[in-house]
Amino acid sequence: MRDVLVDRFGFDSQHIELLMDKPGSPVMRTGVNIKKALNKMVDQAESGDVLYFHISGHGTLIGKKKQDEAIIPLDFNYITNIDIRKIVNRVPEGATITILSDSCHSGGLIDKEKEQIGPSNKPKNQAEGRTIQSSQSCKPKFIPHETVLEHLTSLTNINTSDIGIHMLQLFGNEASLLFCLPQMELDLLKPLKQDEGILLSGCQANEECQDVGGSENENKAYGAFSHAVLTVLKKHSGPLSNKELVLMSRDVLKNDEHIETQHP
To answer: Given 54, 104, 105, 209, which residue is catalytic?
Structure first.
């Protein structure tokens, strides 16, 4: 993706920051580091700038009734739809930000953002499910909220199912705004105006994204949606709208028998 940003879209390689999960990486992909990088990008933005944030990783849902979407960083310090909303709201007038999230339940990653492309907009035969062939090379990127809660409980030794208490104990004021701010302040976060923020999500809010293994010679996995987007961009050298990119990527996923149904 970095090469595509530089070679096709003209981004300056010096302006691209990579956060990794590998031990010894200069900047690890923790919750704090991701938010610092995003805030730095927004702080330096000016009118006319194009901002881009790409993440491929695990995602989950928080809560039972009013569910909030969250990215799960390396240290399990959730980055929620509330955090993303707060950051996007700070983008200066005249600048744009595009977020590509290849993570489970990412369809609602910008809080209060209106869905533009969904299964309901597809022809009926595309919206329906299909038989999936199981494959060890294809794995969901979903981590159950209960699994994370169990892990955090082992770290805090606090007997509570309120994940916010664990997050605040472990990360303090560096935890998600979802756990730090009262509901009244969360409700005051304004929805975006048209085109202020663009979310390209790997799936709908109620769906899971897939990780797909590389070839026998590649000891790595990659996000299926990220790979689909790159496939489309390499095949089509001309201009593409966001909608065209999403629908073409959806077709790439649909034609891969190893990928369970997900709708970008």
So the answer is: 104
Prediction pTM value: 0.84
Q: Which domain holds residue 148?
A: 2-254
- Asked, for residue 261, whether it belongs to a domain, the answer is no
Is residue 15 one of the residues assigned to a domain?
Answer: yes
SS (H, E, C) 124-148: HHHHCCCCCCCCCCEEECECCHHHH
At 39, which amino acid appears? N
Domains: count for the chain? 1
Catalytic residue among 15, 54, 58, 258: 58
Note the maximum CA span of the chain.
56
Confidence at residue 209, expressed as pLDDT on a 0 to 100 scale: 86
Q: Does residue 172 lie in a domain region? A: yes
Tens of pLDDT, residue by residue over 46-63, are 999 999 999 998 989 887
In a domain, 263, yes or no: no
Q: Please confirm, yes or no, whether 58 is among the known catalytic residues.
A: yes
Query: What CATH number does residue 185 fall under?
Result: 3.40.50
223-233 tens-digit pLDDT? 899 999 999 99
Q: How far apart are CA 4 and CA 160, in angstroms?
A: 45
